[in-house]
From TrEMBL:
Residues 35-243 form the Haem-binding uptake Tiki superfamily ChaN domain. Pfam families: Cofac_haem_bdg. This is ChaN family lipoprotein. Residues 293-313 are annotated as: Disordered.
Amino acid sequence: MPSSSSPKGLTIPQTQYDARVVEPESGAALTPEQLARRLAETDVVIVGEYHGHHGSHLLQSRLQMALFRQQPRQILSMEQFNLDRQPELDRYLKGETGETEMIEDAGAWDNYRASYRPVVEFARQQNLPVIAANAPADVVRCVGRKGPSYLDQVSRSIRQALPSDPFTDTPAYREKFAGAIGASHQANSTMNERMENTYKAQLLRDNAMAARILEARAAFPGYQVLHLTGTFHSEGGLGTVALLKQRAPALSVAVISPVFWPATNSKPPLEQNRSKGDFLYFIQPLPDEFKDPEREREAMTARFQRSARKTCD
């Protein structure tokens, strides 16, 4: 892809590692250090990501260090660990277990070493808290299958760790979710039961992450939270962000959202993406997973079958 300049000094991302941060209204380019200075007094900084995109993960690491230089009282909060595995994560942070033990015991994502090791290691070296923020994966899966009543079956310890209002939502988020799964606009308020349960599972994640962030702030007063999450959970100030603001209106929250720079366009698509975040970062599109529709169907079927083998009894 040839190099091309854009207004205010913004340039096309040249590799999958590149992330070009911009201020949405002006289109002005920012370095991670300049962004950190803008965010120095912000209570919660949320960086949305496309899971596994190297540009997202490198920016997160650079911003983590730049924010730390501005405000060394920092908490790293992560969607990528489930709240019921916090003790296993803490044991690693204390040096009581090795990395492979932590990956196995804490249920780290498959791409942990390639994507999240740098931020966890920075926090560990600086003795910073790392918060396992997501709802337990098996509980989320079973709520998606059986509905909200599944929470009546979980252990008391898990239920107490989840927020008391685990399915709070907002109309705009429901509409976004319905659009993402292909429901018509008219069907937004009347999704079928299966989709309704899937939506409740999504809300369980968002509510859990919002609650965990606030718990961390309460446990470490005055600390700045850096929260890493899939962009759907934060984009446009929806999902976890909206729930945070519902629970703590005085909290200052900044959202940094990824945008793919079109491969055929030398200009950043600012106009249609301004509302996605307080700041945007442009990255190269990810490669297509499949070109062969039949192989894609086979892969999706295999993934579904693996999930279906896990029971919710």
